Amino acid sequence: MSDTPVKQQSTAAFYGQAVASFAVAMAATAIGIARLDAGAWVRGFLTIAVLYLVTSAFTLAKVIRDRQEAGQIVSRVDQARLEKLLAEHDPFEKL
């Protein structure tokens, strides 16, 4: 059985870019809502809607990631079983 670790998919630069992009988008949305020429109820509604959208997006991303990781674990278990069977098989053994 191999002990190869699962590779990290993203680099530190990609992670930093994603965090910076998220921060800029949230700041721009917050500034846009704050400067909107509308009543407090409209701004409050838009703020809650944006926060709900962000939490829903994080939840969706987590669910997708969890499904992908579960698939990788099943694949690794199947690969380990196959390697064990191949290691135990003796092709010269008489039937």
Automatic annotation (TrEMBL):
Entry keyword set: Membrane, Transmembrane, Transmembrane helix
GO cellular component: plasma membrane
InterPro entries: YiaA-like (IPR038972), YiaAB (IPR008024)
Pfam families from the UniProt entry: YiaAB
Keyword Nucleus applies: no
Domain YiaAB two helix: residue ranges: 14-66
GO BP annotation list: DNA damage response
Record-annotated membrane-spanning stretches: 12-34, 40-61
PANTHER family (UniProt xref): INNER MEMBRANE PROTEIN YIAA, INNER MEMBRANE PROTEIN YIAA-RELATED
Entry protein name: YiaAB two helix domain-containing protein
